[in-house]
């Protein structure tokens, strides 16, 4: 069912615009937005603001002049119902791409509220709005609603979810009766297994799995060991290049040496492109200028708790800037979007090399690019998938979140956008990422990590009857307080529990990369023999081998006191 929002619009008797006593004015008009073809705007700075509507049958309506203020508010309101984009031929003309944007979900009086600015901030820059806004969520959201007079401006918390739903247009999580969605009923997932972690893969174990020509032997087994325990820090510089796809797993040492030479030349050619742009040229290239501005802003707020990035003129920060600028040459269409520096900084810290860090980052962005695309389709998809998984695991908790207008799971936005980078310590994120890069034990394992974290917080959220604001605040304050090994254990246990379940809904099988469930789910029952023509859910590609294990409370080799920065780091300089 699609959730609707109560409208506060005063109803007309027949839906028509009100007419004058002596008949309609000759200048008045009425048309359906489905008939709208384009909107022509006035030239900026030339007299009163006006709009001219052109319909699909090429009828041009009289101009609407705005004697007070400008036409921006009306344009913003129209964008709730149709998609508007600038014409490539005439920047003053907005072309219309009609699509149903669920009219019931807009507030007719939204434009009168000070909180309208919040929506615009999130639409314009979702990264900053979530990173900065969520960190001050209590005051930021509700102070913006109250304005100067709380008695006249405050909007009830129950409507805040709808402000956020407008921030990512088209995101409707509970559309289970729409085509392509599946009604998930309560399913017995069976007993959840107990999972333990092993020690990190050591340099000795890695070396034993390399042949005389430098090829990695038994790649699947190596990935399983990395998934179960991560890597010792001394090994990360080598292993991450394989995990991220920079080096092929079956390559020889000589082939890798040749590849690095080729990639080094390619990197510096791209770097030279932006380095050779003069100030005058950059003034005429607004995109490159904007990319540089965003990069400098993000680099300056890099986490300085790590010694690699200490100090204002630290070589590590300079290299961050240069690598990100070069990436803009590598993928000019995507360019730079705020948040990318969060993904790069751990890579550069581990690689301690500009070229290797760049190509590892480019490989990581191949996985993550949908998170940063303008339409944010990747974020929409992940939030919907997360809701589907969470509902299967705990429908009661999902119902509680929905009752508090938190069913859209926007509090997980930051987790997904930059893969938990702001939720764990710098060293813990190294462990978490290398485990995820194994792509075990199933597809979208990061969504199960989200489920594991939320499951851990469920009791406090429900027992203390947290509302919308308290849930956002509580989830945000988990940052740096989550035990990475505990979360990995819980997420793996959830995956094993689901793999063994023979009644998984089709939607869940697809999210996790499993085949159809062996037993027909209740919502898809056709009355025929349940086992006819159905294939069994496979066991995960992850094999629970008898690997050496230790409890999650066991020792770990990534204690900050045990990992020192290479002496070469202080001598790193940009090329």
Automatic annotation (TrEMBL):
<keyword id="KW-0597">Phosphoprotein</keyword>
<dbReference type="InterPro" id="IPR000195">
    <property type="entry name" value="Rab-GAP-TBC_dom"/>
</dbReference>
<feature type="compositionally biased region" description="Polar residues">
    <location>
        <begin position="560"/>
        <end position="575"/>
    </location>
</feature>
<feature type="region of interest" description="Disordered">
    <location>
        <begin position="1"/>
        <end position="21"/>
    </location>
</feature>
<comment type="function">
    <text>Acts as a GTPase activating protein for RAB7A. Does not act on RAB4, RAB5 or RAB6.</text>
</comment>
<dbReference type="GO" id="GO:0005737">
    <property type="term" value="C:cytoplasm"/>
</dbReference>
<feature type="region of interest" description="Disordered">
    <location>
        <begin position="519"/>
        <end position="575"/>
    </location>
</feature>
<dbReference type="InterPro" id="IPR035969">
    <property type="entry name" value="Rab-GAP_TBC_sf"/>
</dbReference>
<dbReference type="Pfam" id="PF00566">
    <property type="entry name" value="RabGAP-TBC"/>
</dbReference>
<comment type="subunit">
    <text>Interacts with non-phosphorylated form of RAB8A; phosphorylation of RAB8A at 'Thr-72' disrupts this interaction. Interacts with ARMC12.</text>
</comment>
<dbReference type="GO" id="GO:0005096">
    <property type="term" value="F:GTPase activator activity"/>
</dbReference>
<feature type="compositionally biased region" description="Polar residues">
    <location>
        <begin position="537"/>
        <end position="546"/>
    </location>
</feature>
<protein>
    <recommendedName>
        <fullName>TBC1 domain family member 15</fullName>
    </recommendedName>
</protein>
<dbReference type="InterPro" id="IPR021935">
    <property type="entry name" value="SGSM1/2_RBD"/>
</dbReference>
<keyword id="KW-0007">Acetylation</keyword>
<feature type="domain" description="Rab-GAP TBC">
    <location>
        <begin position="230"/>
        <end position="440"/>
    </location>
</feature>
<keyword id="KW-0963">Cytoplasm</keyword>
<keyword id="KW-0343">GTPase activation</keyword>
<dbReference type="Pfam" id="PF12068">
    <property type="entry name" value="PH_RBD"/>
</dbReference>
């Amino acid at each position: 069912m699609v959730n609707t929002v109560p409208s506060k619009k005063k109803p007309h008797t027949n839906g028509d615009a009100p007419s004058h006593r002596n008949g309609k004015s000759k200048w008045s008009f009425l048309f359906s937005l489905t008939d709208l073809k384009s909107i022509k705007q006035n030239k900026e700075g030339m007299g009163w603001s006006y709009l001219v509507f052109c319909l699909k049958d090429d009828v041009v309506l009289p101009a609407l002049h705005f004697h007070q203020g400008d036409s921006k508010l009306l344009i913003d309101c129209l964008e709730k119902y149709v998609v508007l984009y600038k014409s490539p031929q005439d920047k003053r003309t907005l072309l219309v791409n009609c699509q149903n944007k669920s009219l019931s979900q807009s507030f007719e009086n939204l434009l009168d509220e000070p909180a309208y600015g919040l929506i615009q901030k999130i639409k314009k820059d979702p990264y900053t709005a979530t990173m900065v806004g969520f960190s001050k969520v209590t005051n930021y959201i509700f102070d913006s609603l109250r304005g100067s007079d709380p008695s006249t401006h405050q909007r009830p918390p129950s409507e805040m979810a709808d402000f956020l739903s407008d921030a990512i247009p088209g995101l409707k999580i509970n559309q289970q009766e729409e085509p392509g969605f599946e009604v998930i009923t309560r399913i017995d997932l069976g007993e959840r297994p107990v999972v333990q972690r092993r020690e990190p893969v050591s340099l000795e174990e890695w070396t034993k799995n390399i042949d005389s020509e430098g090829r990695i032997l038994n790649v699947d087994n190596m990935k399983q060991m990395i998934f179960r325990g991560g890597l010792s820090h001394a090994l990360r510089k080598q292993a991450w290049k394989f995990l991220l796809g920079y080096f092929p797993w079956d390559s020889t040492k000589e082939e890798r040496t040749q590849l690095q030479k080729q990639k080094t030349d390619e990197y510096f050619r791209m770097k030279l492109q932006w380095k050779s742009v003069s100030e005058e040229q950059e003034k005429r290239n607004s995109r490159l200028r904007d990319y540089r501005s965003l990069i400098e802003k993000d680099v300056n707020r890099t986490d300085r708790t790590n010694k690699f990035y200490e100090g204002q003129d630290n070589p590590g920060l300079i290299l961050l800037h240069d690598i990100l600028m070069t990436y803009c040459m590598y993928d000019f269409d995507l360019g730079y979007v705020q948040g990318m520096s969060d993904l790069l900084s751990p890579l550069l810290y581990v690689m301690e090399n500009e070229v290797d860090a760049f190509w590892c980052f480019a490989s990581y962005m191949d996985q993550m690019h949908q998170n940063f695309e303008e339409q944010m389709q990747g974020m929409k998809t992940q939030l919907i998938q997360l809701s589907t998984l969470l509902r299967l695991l705990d429908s009661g908790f999902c119902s509680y979140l929905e009752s508090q207008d938190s069913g859209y799971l926007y509090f997980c936005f930051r987790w997904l956008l930059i893969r938990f980078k702001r939720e764990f310590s710098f060293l813990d994120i190294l462990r978490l990422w290398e485990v995820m890069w194994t792509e075990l034990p199933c597809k979208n394992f990061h969504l199960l990590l989200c489920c594991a974290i939320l499951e851990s917080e469920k009791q406090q959220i429900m027992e203390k009857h947290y509302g919308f604001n308290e849930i956002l605040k509580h989830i945000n304050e988990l940052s740096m307080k989550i035990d990475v090994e505990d979360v990995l254990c819980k997420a793996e246990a959830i995956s094993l529990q689901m793999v063994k379940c023979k009644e998984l809904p089709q939607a869940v099988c697809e999210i996790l990369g499993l085949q159809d469930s062996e037993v027909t789910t209740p919502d898809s029952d056709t009355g025929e023999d349940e086992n006819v023509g159905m294939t069994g859910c496979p066991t995960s590609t992850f094999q629970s081998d008898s690997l050496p294990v230790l409890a999650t409370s066991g020792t770990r080799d990534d204690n900050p006191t045990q990992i020192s920065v290479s002496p070469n780091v202080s001598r790193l300089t940009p090329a």
